[in-house]
Specification:
alpha+beta; Signal recognition particle alu RNA binding heterodimer, srp9/1; four-stranded mixed beta sheet; 3 helices; phosphoprotein
Length: 110
């Protein structure tokens, strides 16, 4: 997993979307990140670790290549605007859901 800066993450995510446009998929996950790199011990030591500020960890993968970034609270608005524009631009390959007519449903229930 490659930890990138926010701008380089968005450019790499654009490349992943372009590579998977015809076939394949891109999986994106988002979770709260407190800055820890080691797991929390289960028993014994009860360290009270308080993060300085809240952060988000974003990960993206196409099955072969994995990228990630950490977004701090100061950069959230700027990153969210760029991220939402990127998603809007690359979500045009979705298939529309077929709508079933009401007449078929009413005939089936009678």
């Amino acid at each position: 997993m490659v930890l990138l800066e926010n701008d380089s993450f968005l450019t790499e995510l654009t490349r992943l979307f372009q590579k998977c446009r015809t076939s394949g998929s891109v999986v994106i996950t988002l979770k709260k990140y407190d800055g820890r790199t080691k797991p929390v011990p289960r028993k014994g030591h009860s360290e009270s670790f308080e993060p300085a500020d809240n952060k988000c960890l974003l990960r993206a993968s196409d099955g072969k290549k994995k990228i990630s970034t950490v977004v701090s609270t100061k950069e959230v608005i700027k990153f969210q605007m760029a991220y939402s524009n990127l998603l809007r631009a690359h979500m045009d390959g979705l298939k529309k859901k077929d709508k079933k007519s009401k007449s078929k449903k009413t005939k089936a229930t009678q």
